[in-house]
Amino acid sequence: MHDSTKAAAAMESRDWLPLEPYPGAAKPWRCRCAHCAAIKIKRLSHVRKGRARCTDCAGNTISAATAAAIMTAADLEPLTDYPGQQLRPWIAKCLRCGHLGTPTLASVRIRGHQCWACRAAPFPARQPLDEKQAVACMLAHGLQPLDPYPGHTNAPWKSRCITCDNHSTPVPGALPGHHGACPVCARQGINPSEPGYLYLVVHDSLRALGWGVANSGRRHPHPASWPWRPLARWHFAAAQDAWAFGRHLKQRIRSNGCPPVPHAEPETGPARAQTASLDDFSYEQAVRIMEEVAGPAS
Ligand SMILES: [Zn+2]
Ligand SMILES: [Zn+2]
Ligand SMILES: [Zn+2]
After folding, report:
1. 35-to-105, 135, 288 alpha-carbon distances in Å
2. What CA–CA distance (Å, rounded) separates 132 from 244?
3. Tell me: the pLDDT tens digits for 187-202?
4. 143 alpha carbon – ligand 3 mean position (Å)
5. Cβ neighbours of 190 (radius 10 Å)
6. Which ligand is nearest to the CA of 121?
7. CA-CA-CA-CA torsion for 104, 25, 209, 93, nearest 10 degrees?
8. Residue 179: what pLDDT?
9. 66 C-alpha vs ligand 3 centroid, how far in Å?
10. What ligand is nearest to the CA atom of residue 92?
11. Residue 93: helix, strand or coil by DSSP?
12. From ligand 2's centre to the CA of 117, what distance in Å?
């Protein structure tokens, strides 16, 4: 378990997004280039030695300063340093309406200003999209496509939800503007446009850290009946903004090679995909990551 999370983190840090479970270090592994969206067969042992750059986009790197300038020119204020990959969702604030989202640099470069709140174009269904544009749109919706782009936006496309890790086959052209594209997440019954918050909780006997999103009107279960201790929360005008931060936190935790805890109890707490072991990642570290982008807990 730990090995496969570390292997995926190592691959992602070298600009390859794995599309299937870890097969072993020397085995062929289907991955997508985090810059140009090309799908290639890679081997972790080669990538580790620095021998597996993407041949499709070699020499096409963008500096952090240029990346930030592209975002600002499109009225988006990045809240973190450039994540280093054009297809990695980048937490940013819309300078026109204040909405917080996770556009990718790839989509901003191609299509300019990206914001669901003030530019109501959920998925550019009418325009023909190439593979990179289509992948960038899916990632901004919190979905990582696992297959090549089917070529148009009204065909189902196998994807993994970045929030809950479940697989589904949504039709891109039918995706809503907000994060509600994953049927598993949608069943949580969160209203994305109502006020909401991101919470951090700790389970002492499981030695687990957990996080999740709830609407502000909804209360946590009584502490006596809930093994998870609520420790901090960050409020947002819309719950969909809290999702963006939840994905950011998760990405930071997993990119350190920290897997979910093996025995989470999803019926009484956060989904397993939104947990980490306190032995791998401390509560204080999680708070620091949140404070860097969202300010002090409310
Ligand atoms: Zn590439
Ligand atoms: Zn906006
Ligand atoms: Zn989901």
Report:
1. 9, 11, 28
2. 21
3. 788 888 889 999 999 9
4. 8
5. 21
6. 2
7. -10
8. 63
9. 33
10. 2
11. strand
12. 5
pLDDT of residue 189: 82
Report residue 244 as tokens: 């963006």
CA distance 43 to 232: 40
The percentage of the chain sitting over the pLDDT mark of 90, rounded to a whole number, equals: 58
Angle at 189 between CA 188 and CA 190, to 5 degrees: 95
**Long-range contacts at 201-207 (CB < 8 A, ≥ 24 apart):** 201/228, 201/229, 201/230, 201/231, 201/269, 201/270, 202/228, 202/229, 202/231, 202/278, 202/283, 203/227, 203/228, 203/229, 203/264, 203/269, 204/229, 206/261, 206/263, 206/264, 207/261, 207/277, 207/278, 207/279
Contact 39, 26 (CB under 8 A): no
H or E, element range at 77: strand 76-78
Provide the token pair at 167: 């697989």
> 273: CA distance to ligand 3 center in Å?
9
Q: What is the pLDDT of residues 141-189, one digit of tens each?
A: 889 999 999 998 889 999 999 988 999 999 888 887 666 678 788 778 8
Rounded distance, CA 60 to CA 71, Å?
A: 18
Could you report the average pLDDT of every consecutive run of 10 residues in the chain (298 residues)?
A: 85 94 95 95 92 81 94 95 93 90 90 77 68 90 93 92 91 75 80 90 93 83 72 91 91 94 76 93 96 92
111's tokens: 């299509």
Q: Which residue has the tokens 């196998």?
A: 158
The alpha carbon of 179 and the centre of ligand 3 are apart by a number of angstroms equal to: 9
123 residue type, one letter: F
Dihedral sign of CA atoms 105, 71, 178, 163 in order: positive
Q: What is the structure's pLDDT at 34?
A: 94
Q: How far is the CA of 12 from the centre of ligand 1 (A)?
A: 13
